[in-house]
Amino acid sequence: EDVGSQMDRVVTEEEWLQKWEKGNTGFHKEQGHPLLQKYLDVLLNGRSGLRIFFPLCGKAVEMKWLADMGHSVVGVEVSEQALKEFFAEHNLPYCEEPVPEISGAKKLQCTSRNISLYCCSIYDLSSSIAGKFDGFWDRGALVAVNPCDRQRYVSLMVTLMEKNSSYLLVTVLYDPNKHKGPPFYVPESELKSLFG
């Protein structure tokens, strides 16, 4: 498994913002992700009223789906456009508030559901700002962060975990020599070393 060709690849925040501006969002799933529905029991583990984290959330429809079930959802995303589209497409009212700990960041807080979406770099977030989480839905997040930032990303996720939290992770399998990413290829051996 030669992933050397991808290890140095860097996608800037600007490039992600442009994807949203231009509508190059093939990674967005209108119907929600079948794997979340399939493994929902694993995520919830018989528990209700969980705090669930969506790293690099975009406008994931599953955020509303889980909030409708009575869970608290927190997402983080650099594209304000993506977050505003989420609220607009689900007809959800929200208010904006600054995040004092993070310069230039804002939190879009749904006023009819328990959904709080932070507009900032994920690396600016911490458990002192967002709290800790019982469940994680990492679909297109680990595989989207720059390969050089993976360890930093996973270390952050670990600091956001409650004791008995569940982490659902979706990765993609393909020949990394034929596709430059994102999504990036993360071999299973690397997943094991990252998450230990």
UniProtKB/TrEMBL annotation:
Its main location: cytoplasm. S-adenosyl-L-methionine binds at residues 16-27, 56, 77, 121-122, 139. GO terms for biological process: methylation. It holds the Pfam family TPMT. The keyword Methyltransferase applies. It comes from the Eukaryota. GO terms for molecular function: thiopurine S-methyltransferase activity. Keywords: Cytoplasm, Methyltransferase, S-adenosyl-L-methionine, Transferase. It catalyses: S-adenosyl-L-methionine + a thiopurine = S-adenosyl-L-homocysteine + a thiopurine S-methylether. GO terms for cellular component: cytoplasm. Belongs to the class I-like SAM-binding methyltransferase superfamily. TPMT family. PANTHER family: THIOPURINE S-METHYLTRANSFERASE (PTHR10259:SF11). This is thiopurine S-methyltransferase. The gene is Tpmt.
